[in-house]
Specification:
By secondary structure, the chain is an alpha/beta fold. It has helices at 47-51, 62-65, 72-82, 104-121, 143-155, 173-178, 193-208, 235-247, 282-298, 311-320, 345-353, 368-375, 452-457, 476-479, 566-569, and strands at residues 26-34, 58-59, 86-95, 126-131, 161-165, 181-184, 214-221, 253-259, 272-279, 326-330, 361-366, 382-387, 399-410, 413-414, 424-425, 429-435, 438-443, 467-470, 486-490, 527-528, 548-552.
Amino acid sequence: MGKRVAHHPTSDKNGSPNRSLSMPDFRIGIARFWHESNSFSCALTTVEDFNAYHHGTLLGQDIPKHLDQRDEIVGIIGALDDHPAATPVPLLSAGALPSGLITEDTVQHFESTLRGQLQRAAPLDAVCLALHGAISSVPFPDFDGHILRVVRDEVGPHIPITCALDCHAVVTNQMFDLSTAMTAYRTHPHVDEVETGRRAAHILLDILDNKINPTAARQRIPLLLPPPDDGTHSGALKEIFDAVIDANQIDNVVDCSLCPSYAWQDVPDQGWTVWAVTDDDPDLAQQLVRTISQQAWDARRRLLPEPMLAPQDAVRQAAATEGCPVVIVDTADVIGGGADGDTTGLLQALIDLRHEFEGLILCHIPDPEAVAQIKSHQLGDTVTVTIGGKRDRRYTQPIEVTGQINCITPGPITDDGQFGSEPMVETGDIVCLAVDNLRLVLTERVVMGPQPSLFRKVGVEPFEAKLVTLKTGVGFKKTYGHVAAAVIRANCPGASSYDLTRYDFQHIPRTIFPLDMNADWRPQPPAFHNPHWRSTSSPNSSQPSADIAIGRTSRTFAIAASGPSPALRQR
């Protein structure tokens, strides 16, 4: 279908200039930036990490050529393609595996790249972003907000910007103020990335079509909790998300979303966030956020993580448990949570207690140095190698392991749990050491998600093993939940521990549950304000957000003369 040509007067009722009569109605910039930044990991994230992830950094028309089918951009572009007057303008897509803070050089690189892409794409009528929401950098703790600041600086104060967020976003005052509307995933483990992108685009199109006049309310809830084992499928978190989903069925509700935060980020805006966007109904928005935030607070003790055992105790309990496979979960060293994946506390317990087991014990650690050393030997050789603790000695120490080489094989492996957006997972070379009945699998690269295919790659069936140890949060539910004879949680050291008392938080707001177990809280009276980009406050302000923030966005989104660069003000 051809593009509809705009037929607008030369200015609207407010005197703002309209687009050229010969141009398609809406040129909509699209960008994606994804990273989960762990404040307690020492592994800083660089440009090279982004370039090594999936298809690397993509610009312009290379983005739709390499779409990952679970990517929010698939939903965004799909929604825009369905609109007769929308032209998608791909700008930037970049992501990296969860890890530590992003370096200052990397921030400067991507800021410069994004500004350049925006300037080359000018003029734009709107922007739709896919951001994680828990991106933090050395110079900017709120890097998602900084990205929005860059976009807002370039396109001006009245161009609408919508965002699709991960539900583990740490939603800040800056993010709320600089965007016109946001929406977040409603599932964990995540299965609705494409749907969330489509929602963000539909909201944007409704704004551009003058179908809605968005008003928004937001409430920060003083909760700091790791994800519960059942995710959004059952239990207290499901009940809260059910309330969010029900709210979205109410007349005049444009979007209602909940972000239970990312617990391993030490930033001033930390905590859960619920927000509602309504069509010119601020009272309804306030009512919804107050009701849902109260429900979340009332459920706080039901959301606490399951009890955990010290590594030695967890292994002993596994040995005494009937059936197989028994699964020990090490939540403190999860790649998907920003940890390194190579702590050795649980491995040491397995080595010490391996003779208490009848049957195989399985363990995986990424260690490129050990893989390289083992590859210099032959199958069947007995070798002694130093395992783990190569990047961060705060949580672990390397240990010496002597075993027989019984497999050396190249990757990749299949993504059994669909933890990523590709059918295969790059592992680099894989080796397996046999230490009596312990099978220690080592990979050159970190591996997202607890993948049974990793053990099968070295000739071992994990579902028939006596014990499988997994560095995972809730992902084991997808790949081992249906076969596990029992699940035991080990309280190990690491950068993603569910025991948050292990960390020296310096910047989070206090009081916050459960670090302050006896905290008492009620939703606060709303604070009304104009959106941040209409105010005269400093763009570098890092003040923590108010508990509730109400914003109202005008129907008129013509570019103000004082807003963007001259290139964006001209047709």
